[in-house]
Amino acid sequence: MGVAERTPASRRSKVGKVTVLAALVAATATGCSGDEVLRFGWPEGVTPQAESMRNLWTWSVIAALVVGVIVWALIFWSVAFHRKKKAAAGVEEELPRQFQYNVPLELFCVVVPVIMVCVLFFFTATTESKVLAKSDDPDVTVDVIAFQWNWEFRYPSESRDAEAQTISTVGSSAEIPILVLPTDRTIRYNLLSTDVIHSFWVPEFHFKRDVMPHPDKNNQDSSFENTIDREGAFVGRCAELCGTYHSVMNFEVRALSPDKYDQFIRLRTQVNPATGKPNTTAEALSALNCGELCAPQATTTQPFNTDRTARTATG
């Protein structure tokens, strides 16, 4: 005797067990928290703009999963219940019901995807408007000046230093420039390059924008705004290939509470008795004395020696 054919009930039971087992493995093997699951791999940001993008991503993935589940269900339903059935002896094989030239079904398959695309476009455009929105009077303005292969940060909206100069920080091969910013305040970044095209990118902002040498001669807005939600140190990078040392053109954003930031600006305007010159960024941060957050050197990245003769081959 041949092996008895499995009944539909036994097949469904096996499929159900496999499904439950797969769900248990997925739930226990990932080790993700609830927040991480809802982010669907989206990294955690530190600005309201980043949160808006995260919300768009989360709901887009949920919508895609819902559509996917419906499509998978229809596929399995068709496979399970609309297969070509075996014919009895002497009887022609029976074909499943055919749906070609079904006008309502064809309209459904056209109209529903168009509606889905329109909805996705609406929420994408709304989120983009929030991310790119600019206020009439930002709390802080920073001029971000990129050059091969480092950064300069100026504070034109703040008081001038003891030498009547705009407060600024310039990076070098020996020192990573630190961009000190306040939390819970609207910050405008004005971007400019002195040579080639660079790109201002802080991963925790979930935002980057090219830094153009002639912002008035291209169709890209050379400024943007955001608000930082929490204190911290975040590495910033150049995200546009700009030459030999592009990969090490880093900087650090140091986000301080508004009161610490105000103290920092005051210290930058004052003269350091030891040098007879206005305090540098490192000296002002040291004077703040607020622990690792006020470390005078960058803590998220380190300078790179641009002298090629100082390096040895790794082969």
Quick structural gist:
Keywords: Copper, Electron transport, Membrane, Metal-binding, Respiratory chain, Translocase, Transmembrane, Transmembrane helix, Transport. The chain contains six helices and twelve strands.
Keywords for this structure?
5-stranded mixed β-sheet; 12 strands; about 325 residues; 6 helices; about 20% strand; alpha+beta; Immunoglobulin-like
Task: Find the CATH superfamily of the largest domain.
Answer: Cupredoxins -  blue copper proteins
* Radius of gyration, in angstroms, nearest whole number: 30 Å
The description of the largest β-sheet is: 5 strands, mixed
CATH class category name of the largest domain: Mainly Beta
What does this structure look like?
This protein is α+β, with helices and mostly antiparallel strands and 315 residues long. Strand 6 and strand 7 form a beta hairpin. The chain starts with 7 loop residues before the first helix and ends in a 27-residue tail after the last helix. It has 6 helices and 12 strands. It has a 5-stranded mixed β-sheet, with no helix packed on it. The radius of gyration is 30 Å and the shape is elongated. Helices cover 36% and strands 20% of the residues.
